[in-house]
Amino acid sequence: MQIYIDQEKCTGCQLCVKACPYGAIEVDAGVVAITAACTFCGACVSACLVGAIVREAPEPEEVNLSEYRGVWVIAELDGENLAAVTLELLGKGRELANQLQTELSLVLLGDELAGLAQAAGEFGAEQVYLVEHPAMVRYRTNPYTDVISGLINEHKPEIVLIGATQQGRDLAPRIAARIKTGLTADCTGLEIDDDERLLVQTRPAFGGNIMARIITRSHRPQMATVRPRVMRRREPEPGHSAEVVEVPVSFDESSILTKVVEIARDEGSEDVNLQDAEIIVSGGRGLNKPENFALISELADALGGVVGASRPTVDDGWIPAYHQVGQTGSTVQPKLYIACGISGAVQHLAGMSGADCIVAINTDPNAPIFDVAHYGIVGDLFEVVPTLTEIAREELGS
Fold first, then answer.
1. For the chain, what are the domain ranges?
2. Mean pLDDT value across the chain
3. What is the CATH architecture of 2-56?
């Protein structure tokens, strides 16, 4: 890969100097030059308004695959802690790294996060690339893309894993486009093809009717986003530490296109954490009308769980979208999942089939939900659910 400045087009505006997070652009006697500190992240290319900066990537057949080694997880934060999906990816990343006999690294961006590097070590990371700067306190697309693209170009990891969250779905495709590699989104399975040292990425396709197995044969790194609660997190190893590599960066706030003014959440969404819930009671079209979600809520309260829903009930406006379980909602792995009046479309099954115990209630004995249920009740949910609620209240004193 190479990058250069067309001096005939350059106007000397120095927007590229402000945009470069690695301080790799200098101005000498009015002439702008790129130094050896360049990581080819592309931030200057995006900042140049006159197209004077040119970055040329090698053709696929010119990529030396042997130069790429290591498995990387791009961290996401949940408040002051590593997000659950990051811990899950560290667990899967550790498996992949062991199979490839290579290192597992975490890329951690934010400010004042040194304490989290220890946690990453306990969950399997051998190395943490720590990028701290006040401009990264909250996620913003441009600085995150610039910094991570530069790190990938410099260190050449073989595999890069990102959570398929709102943040990850925004970030991953931008990085993939910037570094000219492929990306498989919303993976539900990852494994190594030992014969060719390839990452086999499995994801639902064609509305969930088939499971596609995708490989990135000619480009590196091999990138994938993985849905939360699909991978099992490994148990931490107290005392196991990771090598911390501090990555110095600098930002001119005026060069960042966006600013986080306020974080607004849907009313009630903070009370519904489907992905971490141990008990979920979900309702479907069999409830007949939105008011009947009260039955689901009563059973969930009695069991100490939360309310879930199928996509049709969300699409019809019966319940807010943050309750949705399924391929286009939340992927969950509770200890107990009770499906009430849900037929079991493949998109819904993709989001809840990992539950430890599935109880299905439906009047149709041939409903697909019974194919994955551990216990099935063929009956009227308007009779069964209130009975279960009463029993739960008596047994649990709730």
1. 2-56, 62-252, 269-396
2. 88
3. 2-Layer Sandwich (3.30)
